[in-house]
Amino acid sequence: MEPVFSGDGLTGEFPELLQFCARAEALIAELLLLSDRVPSQFLDPRFDPVLFDLRYFESPRDYEARINANTELQAVEDELNESCASYLQRFFLLANGVVQYHTDLVKYLSNLQEGLYAHFTLEGILENKHGAQLLIESISLFGGILLLIEHKISGFLREKLLVSYLRINQSFKFPNLEQIYSLCRLHKTTKPVPDIINIQKTEDLFARFPFPKVVIDAVIVSCLRNDDIYNNGHFYTDPIHRTMALSRQGAHLFVLLFYSHGFLFDSAFMREVVDRFFKDNWVVPVVLHFSVDLLVSWDPYREAKAALVECVSPTFMRDRCTYHCMKHVMML
């Protein structure tokens, strides 16, 4: 993907990264739409005999023979295909769009590392405010997509949707099918909580779709750790508002740490991160209004959890609640 230039430089500064971010936002919109419109047939026990998970591919002939030998199951399957074909196609296009996004972004980042673009480098992008913002968002938004998929469409449901689509189309030779299997494969079952994302072993989920570690580490260390990439400090001048000023940046950092999760076990690094971003702001919006509770999300990571607990004591929580309640009363 070669950059587009005008006579004076890069048109729109970084059009490829801007396009990645736009694609990610479109995928999130489609994901939320589909997750709220899952066909009732996939939740109806009557259709369970014709809905299969990925184990179907271990012996597809056995599954098909069982259906073909039973006229009632054939009728149920015909009803399923007739009523859900359109939704299944949109789900497959979404899954394909997600994995293609990852493939394209990895290729772009690899080309940056190899110096294939004559007019800019990874270091040059990170030194440019707009470039750094777009690069961080293009990676962070993809991580947010993975979290949202796991949160909004369970692994059991994803597998059934994928197998149903492939069986309806009688085609198993799509270009990105292996990656789509990885996207749809069951990860960990967690009890869903509305708007609060709680995914176990997030680093394992992200490992299915990795990014170059050199890029992730450079983004974390060079930009997210110490910079104010959105220049919000100019608008939140009171030190007590620092975590609010850096909240969006902190959300990106939360996501990217799972792509380089060694940082989560670095006590000194995590104490610095918590003090700057999360000491009084531990419920973090990651994508839109969907948030994570760091006390829960970081529970498996001893050093990260310890750094947070040092700041977020019960006394501190009570004092912060009292402070904000008093502010609210004064505003009335």
Automatic annotation (TrEMBL):
Q: What InterPro entries has UniProt attached to this entry?
A: WASH_strumpellin
Out of the domains of life, which is the source?
Eukaryota
User: What Pfam family does this protein match (any one)?
Assistant: Strumpellin
Q: Which GO terms describe its biological process?
A: actin filament polymerization; endosome fission; endosome organization; regulation of actin nucleation
* Any one GO cellular component localisation term in the record: WASH complex
PANTHER family for the chain: WASH COMPLEX SUBUNIT 5
Family statement: Belongs to the strumpellin family.
Its recorded name reads Uncharacterized protein
User: From what organism does this protein derive?
Assistant: Carex littledalei
